[in-house]
Amino acid sequence: MVTSDQALHIDTHQQPDPNTMLSRPRFTRHRTLTLLHCALLSACAAVGPSYQAPATEQLLTSSQWQAVQPHGGDTAALLTWWKRLQDSSLNALLQSAETNNPSLQKAAANITLARANVSTTRASYQPTLTGSASARRNNTPGSAQSTATGGLDASWELDLFGSVRRSAESADALLQARQADWHDARVSLAAEVATDYVTYRACQLTLLASQADARSSQTTADITRRSLQAGMTARADAALAVASAASASATAIAQQAECDVTVKALVALTGLAEPALRQQLDSQPAQLPTLTGFQINTLPVDLLSQRPDLVSTERALAAASAQIGVAEADRYPRLSLLGSLSATRTDGVNTTPWSFGPSLSLPLLNGGAKRAAVDSAQAAYDLALANYQQAVRTAVQEVEQSLVRQMSAVRRTADVQRSATGYRSYANAVEANWRAGGDSLLNLELARRNAIAAEQSLITVQRDQLLYGIALYKAVGGGWTVSTGDTP
């Protein structure tokens, strides 16, 4: 009795009877050739959908996106991003990160696994052949016997309905996805190292300003204390000066801690020992990298299709489509060619039995499990399609936001520069007037705080120009292209 999860198995290969072979040679050959002919004709078609990449042009060029346009934009400026920074320390850190970072190592290992999966899948196209051999000698009272045997077993499943071909398509697509993941890891790593490096340089500049303010505040407190002792300053002014000096000192200490935290992040990213990393950072003065000639108002939408994460998501979609064909092919019959040959020699007597013939497996009753497998594969494809569409929207959003933020930072820079210059000039004038006895300590502290805030705003907006440029670099895939073949 055949259960719902069993298949009818017809095995026509057996050791032929010599008499039967002599009487029916033409019928046997005709039957075998007919089966082979049918198999080869059936193998020309693979069940399941033929994959086509989804059309995303309408989504990418939708009127809801304003900054990204389907034409214009100087992409050459974007693709040479790191060269335009002209910072040897940053280049050295990027190189160290790429040669010694676990995220890239994991991505490379995933590529190796995917390649092995491709080789395993494609091996199903080929017939298998297994050999065996043994020898023994039996010694019983009154007799001794020597026996040697050798044999070959062969099998080959014909890909009637494209199950193996669809599996190979899926494996190839997943390999391409893992290669794109490796490029995405490189882009993300470079952007993260650059972000932390720029943040550290900005932190250094802020720290220098904070330390200068702490020294100035301490000098003011010392002058005020001496003036109080001479009876020329009110006790309230002396207390204000001491409090201001303590506050400035605490700010400088906190800023130093922020810089040290950023160094720890760079150590984790680059894999360098902290002393070596600090030596590399100290090889250049505390200043932000100079970015010249980098201003992009629009970007061609085609550039977004080069994002490695989008390539990976699209390739995962292709793999899911192929799996529908694999599940569908499992609902159809399977045909295999089986054969065996053995040779036995016993005390000089040779025997060589052999067998060859087709084996057909027909799925009859399975309780709807195979139909459910097709539905599951289709649902997995729909999920992958939704993921791809969401990834496209996210990519456009990231580019839009990076463009808006960078352009805003560029437009703010000139105003913030004038503000910092004006507040510093005013603070210097108030301090000179205070030293001459013509202004109050309260006015001096207010002028100093305004000057410090303006200087920090200038450092921040200069830092933001670089950080938003890095974000834009990452948002469009870092200049990577699909044709790049430098994966590990």
From TrEMBL:
Keywords: Lipoprotein, Membrane, Palmitate, Transmembrane, Transmembrane beta strand. Residues 1-24, 124-150 are annotated as: Disordered. Residues 124-149 have a biased composition (Polar residues). It is a lipid-anchor. SUPFAM superfamilies: Outer membrane efflux proteins (OEP). It is found in: Cell membrane. The keyword Lipoprotein applies. It comes from the Bacteria. Pfam families: OEP. Belongs to the outer membrane factor (OMF) (TC 1.B.17) family. PANTHER family: OUTER MEMBRANE CATION EFFLUX PROTEIN, PROTEIN CYAE. This is Antibiotic efflux pump outer membrane protein ArpC. It comes from Rhodoferax lithotrophicus.
